[in-house]
Structures are given as structure tokens and as C-alpha cells.
Amino acid sequence: MMNVVVVESPAKAKTINKYLGPGYKVLASFGHVRDLPAKDGSVLPDQDFEMLWEVDGASQKRMKDIADAVKSSDALFLATDPDREGEAISWHVLDLLNKKRVINGKPVKRVVFNAITKKAVLDAMADPRDIDVPLVDAYLARRALDYLVGFNLSPVLWRKLPGARSAGRVQSVALRLVCDRESEIERFISEEYWNLSAILKTPRGDEFEARLVAADGKRLQARSIANGEEAGKLKALLEGAAYVVDSVEAKPVKRNPAPPFTTSTLQQAASSKLGFSASRTMQVAQKLYEGVDIGGETVGLITYMRTDGVQMAPEAIDAARRAIADQFGNRYLPEKARFYSTKAKNAQEAHEAIRPTDFDRTPDRVRKFLDGDQLRLYDLIWKRGIASQMASAEIERTTVEILADNAGKKAGLRAVGSVIRFDGFIAAYTDQKEDGEQSDDADDEDGRLPEINARENLAKQKINSTQHFTEPPPRYSEASLIKKMEELGIGRPSTYAATLATLRDRDYVTIDKRKLLPQAKGRLVTAFLESFFTKYVEYDFTADLEEKLDRISAGELNWKDVLRDFWTNFFAQIEDTKELRVTNVLDALNEALAPLVFPKREDGSDPRICQVCGTGNLSLKLGKYGAFVGCSNYPECNYTRQLSSEGGAEAESNGLNEPKALGADPVTGEELTLRSGRFGPYIQRGDGKDAKRASLPRGWKPEDIDYEKAMALISLPRDIGKHPESGKMISSGIGRYGPFLLHDGGYANLESVEDVFTVGLNRAVTLIAEKQSKAAGGRARGGTPAALKELGEHPDGGGAITVRDGKYGPYVNWGKVNATLPKGTDPQAITVEEALALIAAKAGKSGSTTKKAPAKAKAAAAGAKATKTTAKPKATAKKPAAKTAAKKKSAE
């Protein structure tokens, strides 16, 4: 008897095959086996939302292997991941196998492994079920919605807002959150306030600090002391007052542990404590879930990592309680197990929280089997999981009320302190707040107080009066944005990391010191959508749509009805934009983005009047490469300024209303000038079309540019000297990929722009030699660099997969296919699954074994064949999407 089991990942396939034994053949689908082609007409609203699926070449081969195995099998078990996407993959596989006519009445069952351990796998195989049709319907609805929004809204952006790359159902709402926060910061007006406190001494000589909370019989609210004059009067009262303790109250307080991790809370904690991005967190968690070699046995260390459930299985709770008693002692074990429910909007709680598969497998015991990031994330998950079942922390919170009396003028002061009487769960895990996030627990900020008794007199030591100013709300980090999206019910656990990655890839946001900064391009897109597609970027609308998708998965709504309702209104909105003129768009954007487009001027003049001609009105202009600010008197006045998110006022002041003369080139005699164009400030030598120009490097400010810097920049590339071996010139310059050295057609990177102007011959020769040594003795012309890392054979076509270092950075190589690694990726940390996905995207095939193969890879498939979900003939939908443009761009 032979049974076929289909999983998503080849890593899981190998492990599960060991668990199941010789009666089973486990094959991997490598994520999705088919997808909607990234082109117009893949979803046909006029054909009752018929969806045309495409199977790429790599997936065709895998499906052939699966079909051949099923032909000679007795049963088929579909064991893809335990979420909506996993259910969809099983449905796709079964649908293709039925089309190949290989099932022939054989039993087909769906099984889900919440953890890749022998017990979890065997238990799941013993309790199979049918494919969850409502869950598949929810996937189809989500996929169709995302497609319809992306491939109909994005072309509107391309036509009406040049430079904008895409819009998406969840992506655009997440971007709006970031942009709205930036607008809040721009509109914020700081207010002055003062705090007063007294350093007091007890009769026993112990000092402590008490805050002023009342004066003249009135309770002082936060920031109620508005200026220095008020603060001075109160300080004078306190300086001459006598102090006596009115009351001392010690109250026991219990702090309870947080529940185990969900996808969202894991991403937030990994960001706060470990500095991981959301995508990095999911990459590491995927490996911990799929399995790690522990002493010769591959075993999954954590449960499935895409979940919004907060509960653990009963057997896991029992195991956690045993581990607590064993490792911390019975004092840390509560009388009863703890049970949690989520507060997140629209949470499905279909699966367990993220927890260790075995609480006896402590971080110390697996340390030697994990790399650094894996150990740190596992340590976090283990500690949070064990803490969730531990006893409460017991804290004694003491509040001291103090009366101050100055000749009948009275004031009230308060001192608060906390003492941990029993650490409880804190012994295992403590939360950490995000930068800029306010603590909602006063205990976190209270210090310990000395012995203080009621009615005793206190001696004044010092009165502190400090001025403060209110601060604007902090920008979102990846973690706090995910938290906000979860609170609003926007997106789902499997979408957070991908949504954030899309915003970065589109250059809509950048990350600076872990904070998300919306770029001008992102703010333009958001302002456009808020002006002309208001409903579709509203938080409530998006959350309501998510709720409908959840109701579809619960079998409460028909997915086609939801699509019809959405499409009717959305299509009408798209049609309305056909009459939209660019002037209408610019007028709306000028108002929506006024602080960005028209920053206030230091001299108080009208920021909408051109400073060059004095009569023209400044306005947004749309060029081939995006938006910029220009004068209405063009071409008589050719003033332009780059639209920049990096400080509107600074951008205005650096607008260089007219060229700034810096001096003459001693060789050519031509004048060097500092100018500003739509792409930013630059140096120009001479005039006319033959004038040489050089943009200011990143980090160089126009106000810092002098003659010497201008000459150095305009003179690039800089000759450093001849190489002592080849006799050929070594030069330095600044290119598309940053500062570099050039020698004999080969490049070596420089660390900073300053190095371009200062690096000497000896250092340059050393850097070139180091670059050549990385490429195994030098990269000869036309040669191939040596491998930095061997990843093994390609699972389909054979041949070695390697990571190499090339002219423009590290890349993955397989045969003739070279795929550049994403910026910031550690070449030593790349996995075979990630490499396959990159190779597939480059080669026009989908080879992804990571969670859900990238849409781009699938869309680019060469010679792929489309298969339909129905037998209806293909009809052209009446859609406003621009077909030619859609073929060139990915909508989501």
C-alpha cells in the first residue's frame, strides 16, 4: 500500500517522510502551483468573476511528478500549511489532478500539521478531513479583490500621477496610516508646560522626590502649569513651605502575563527586543517551524507561525506547567491554567498561538544547533510561552500624599513607589515598549521609596522647576504599524510582512532608525487616493471587507455576492476618473499636501508665490519621472524645486532661486554654479547643452557646498594612480550603486563618498586585491567569481546552486541564471528556498519553496499555460485597466 502526501516545502517533505515511513511518498508543491497571470483579463467580472489560472514551467514538472505518483497510489493526503493559503494550495493541486484524470475515485483527504513533530504529524494523519470549501472561497474572494483593485486602480495612477507605481487593497491603506501620521506631525503645534517637584528628607535622613499635584485647593492636571510665570509663583510657595506627611497607602497590585505570541505580537516583540524587520522575523520563524537538525533528527521547534490565535492546546499547557514547576519551582505555578482570548478586531483564532513544540527543549539545550538569529527568536518564543502560564507578579505600590503650607497658602505633593514582592512571570519574560510608545503601567516608571510614616514632618532639600514642550506623535515603526493594522482589522497575519515589503520596494516609504518615513511619492499616491477614491482607503471600509472575507470562510456569505457588491461601486468610481483632468488632480494635491508643497518661509512671505519672478504661482507639476514644484510663468520663469519629504522648509530654502556662483574652473575657465532641479541640487560647469553636471551625493547639503567641494565633485572620476602590477590607471567615482574604484574594467566598492576624494594608491590597490581574492584569485575578464556559499543541487533541473559576489554585489547563480540578492541580505544567510524563489523570478519560472511563491516569479513564467476554473470561453471584461501598462508592471 502506497499513499501520496503533498506538502509545500521540500524541507518538510524530507522530515515528514521519515516520520511516516515506507508506506508513504511525500512530495513538495513548492508553494502555490498556479496563480493569476500579472496581466489584464485574469479575472473576468463580466463572466461571473471567472479566474484564469496559469501554471508555470517549474510547477508543471512538479505536478507531473505528483500526478505520476498518485497514479500508482492508494490514497492522497493534502498536507499543505494550516491556513487559508495552505487550503487554497491543496484545492489547486486537487483541481489540477482531477483535470489530469489521475484521482479515479481514490480517497483524497486534507490533513494539517500545526507543528512538524512526529506526534503532531501522526496525530494529524489519524484525523483527516475534507478540503474546507468556505476557506477556499475566502481565498478566491481575497485573490480576486486584490487583483481587481491592483489591476484597475494602478493604471489610473499611471495615467493621472506619473511616477506612481501601484496601489493595492491593503497596501494603500497601510501607506495612508504612515502618511496620516506624518501629516499629524506637520500640523502639530508644540505647547509649553512646567513640572514642579520637591526633594524631601525624612527624619531618618532618607531623601525622595515628590511631584506637585495640587495648589490653592485645585487639582493640577497634566500640563496645567502653562508658563514660567505660573511656575515661578508655585515654586516660591514651595520654597518657603513646611512639609508634613498627610497619608501613606500601601496597596498590593498584581501584574498578569501576556498571552503567547501571535504573528503580529511576535513581529512586534522581535522588532523591539531583537531589531528584526517583520520579513526577517518570518524567515527565521519559518525555519524554526519547518525543522532544525537536533542531534541527527530534524524536528520542528515551534508551532505554525501565521496565526492570530492566543490559546495553546491543552497538552501544551500541561507541558508548560510541568516545565514551570521543574525549572522555576512550584511557587511560580498558578493553581489553575490560564486561558486567553484575543482583543484584536476580526481575529479568527483558528489555530494555536506560536509556542515551542516541547517546553523541555529550553533555549540552552538547543543553543548549539541554531544560528544566532534562530536562537534569539526561539529564546523569545520559549520565554513568552512559558511566562503565559506562570504566576502573576506581586507588586506593592505605595502612594504618599504630602501637604505643603506656606503662611496659609497650601499645596499638595505626591510620591509613588513600587516594590516587587514576588517576580512571578517576570522571572521568565518582560515586555519592552517601542521607542516613543507611552507606557500604560505606572509601575514601570515608579522607583522605590524609603520608610515614610504618616503625620511626620519632612525637610525640604530642593525645589525643581522644569520647562517642557509637548512633542508630536512618533512615526510608526514596522512593529507599531503592524499593531495598528491589527487593531483596525486591516490585513491578516500572512500579509503584514509582505505589505510592508511592498511599500519599501515601491519607494513609498523608507526606514530611518527603525521609523517609517513616507516619501514624496508615497504621499502623492495617498493624497490622490484620498481625494478621488476616498472610500477605498478608509480604515473602516477595509476592515469591513476583511470581516466579510472571514464570514465567507465561516460559510456565512457567498463569495461571488461579495465580489459583485464590491465591483459595481468600484467600477463606477474607476469610470468617473476617465473625465478627470490633470489640473483637477494637481489642485487637489496642492491642497492636501500644502505643508509639503508650500513649506513656510522664514521671512513670512507667501510660500505659494515664486521667489524668482515674484509674480508666478508655485504648484505641483507632473513630469515623466514624478512630481516636482514649478512656477506658473514657465517658460519665462524656469524655477523648479524637487518635492522632498526630508523637511519642507529646508527644501524650500535650498531651492536655489537662482544659480549660486562658486568660482571658475582653473583649467577651462568656465563658471561653477550650484543649482536646483526637479531631481535635487547639483553642480554645473559652464552653460548650454554641453555643460557638465554632477548631482550632490546623498548626505551632502547645498549650504555646505563651497568651491573646493564643487571642483572635487565636477572633476570625477578621479585618477588615483597606476596599479603597480598592471600599470593601468586606478580611478574613483560615484555611480548608480554608490562610491567605487575602477581598474581594468573591474570595480571595488568604497565605504563612503568621502573615500572617493581621499583614498590613496596603497589603499586602492589593497581594496582591489581584496575584491579579487573574494572572487578566488581575481575575476578575469569574462570569468565567473568563486562561490561564497554552496546550496546544493537544483531540485528540478539539477546543477549546483551557489551564492557569488559580483560587480554589483552578491547574487545567486544556477547555470546561466544570475539573480541579485535583495539589498541588505546576508549572502551567508541565504537558504536554498530563498535562492529558488530568486532564480525562478529571474528565469521566468516559479521555484519558491517559501510561504507562497512570489507573484512576480509566477507572472514572468515563460511559455506557461493558462488553465481555467470553468469551461466557459474567455471573454474580454469591460475594464478600464491599461493592458499594455499592466503587462509591464506588477499591481501588488
TrEMBL record:
UniProt-listed Enzyme Commission number(s): 5.6.2.1
Name of a matching Pfam family: Zn_ribbon_Top1
GO CC, alphabetical: chromosome
Residues the record marks as active site: 304
Site note Interaction with DNA, residues: 32, 142-143, 146, 158, 306, 506
SMART domains, per the entry: TOP1Ac, TOP1Bc, TOPRIM
Gene Ontology process terms (BP): DNA topological change
Role according to the record: Releases the supercoiling and torsional tension of DNA, which is introduced during the DNA replication and transcription, by transiently cleaving and rejoining one strand of the DNA duplex. Introduces a single-strand break via transesterification at a target site in duplex DNA. The scissile phosphodiester is attacked by the catalytic tyrosine of the enzyme, resulting in the formation of a DNA-(5'-phosphotyrosyl)-enzyme intermediate and the expulsion of a 3'-OH DNA strand. The free DNA strand then undergoes passage around the unbroken strand, thus removing DNA supercoils.
The protein, known as: DNA topoisomerase 1
Organism listed in the record: Rhizobium freirei PRF 81
